[in-house]
Design goal:
Layout: E1 2-5, E2 12-15, H1 20-27, H2 34-47, E3 51-55, E4 73-78, H3 84-92, E5 100-104, E6 106-107, E7 112-120, E8 137-145, E9 160-165, H4 171-176, H5 179-184, E10 187-193, H6 196-201, H7 206-216, E11 218-222, E12 228-231, H8 235-245, E13 251-255, H9 258-265
Parallel strand pairs: 3-4, 3-9, 4-5, 6-8, 9-10
Antiparallel strand pairs: 1-2, 7-8, 10-13, 11-12, 11-13
């Protein structure tokens, strides 16, 4: 294991240097996604979430990059069991470590006891519930869970939810599997990976997905230097235009009301 300190914190993150994702974190000194880390930290500070969910957590660069309220519940989900020892050690040394729960499963819209998952042998961050094509991979079978199922025993009406989804094109599936928590929590905000060309290659109906997102959230693209650009109607065309211009952006920030936007700008 190689130990890094996430910039701007004293939080360690442990990585495998033989994994290209781990090597990338080493090259960039613990932060490969500065835009998303910036907004994750800002959203945590401004919204004070009591429920935090990171699906597709990988080594934990995002979720470990900040501290949380002492009463917050933090759930991290990843299907790649090879990452668990690294993530476990990082969490143990995080100031909120005792509040974390690790779920080793595919986050989905269905509860199944055995689902195929494709682990990229070279770069763990490319592992997916979608077939990896010509990449070097190994198949594993693992349960799938819905986010809603992880909170069956919790009353959530007073909770503020902050979530991040980075599941290699499977984001819509995960969102469908968290419909109750999205509907019933007091306040919701999130960040999702939104790689349009990748999702299209995997057969995701992008028009329908963007329509789903626009019906449930206000959509913003995180730009350079802390900028937020709203994706407005016509949503699909606007998203295409924005991501064609900003080729370094593969994410969307999801808000549920303009008060949240005002908080982020304050």
């Amino acid at each position: 294991m190689h130990k890094l300190i996430i910039p701007g914190t004293n939080h360690p993150i442990y990585v495998n240097p033989r994994d290209l994702k781990g090597a990338s974190l080493m090259r960039y000194k613990g932060m490969t996604q500065p835009r998303i880390v910036h907004w994750w930290r800002t959203m945590t500070q401004k919204f004070g979430p009591s429920l935090v969910i990171d699906a597709g957590v990988n080594y934990g660069e995002i979720v470990l990059s900040t501290a949380y309220d002492s009463q917050a519940s933090v759930t991290v989900i990843d299907a790649n069991e090879v990452l668990r020892p690294y993530l476990t050690r990082s969490i143990e040394e995080h100031p909120n470590g005792s509040q974390f729960r690790i779920v080793n499963a595919i986050a989905s819209d269905q509860l199944q006891s055995s689902v195929t998952f494709y682990v990229d042998k070279v770069r763990s961050g490319n592992s997916s519930a979608f077939h990896l094509g010509e990449r070097a991979f190994r198949e594993i079978t693992i349960p799938s869970v819905t986010v809603d199922s992880l909170f069956d025993d919790r009353t959530i009406k007073d909770d503020t939810l902050l979530f991040k989804l980075d599941v290699e094109g499977y984001e819509w599936n995960v969102l469908r599997g968290m419909s109750r928590i999205l509907k019933e929590t007091k306040e919701v905000a999130g960040i999702i990976e939104f790689n349009m060309s990748y999702m299209e290659k995997k057969g995701v109906d992008l028009r329908s997905f963007v329509s789903f997102l626009s019906e449930n959230f206000l959509l913003f693209a995180p730009g350079n230097k802390g900028a937020l650009t709203e994706i407005k109607a016509p949503y699909y065309e606007s998203a295409l235009q924005y991501f064609a211009r900003d080729k370094d952006c593969n994410d969307l920030i999801l808000l549920t009301n303009l008060d949240q936007l005002a908080k982020l700008k304050s």
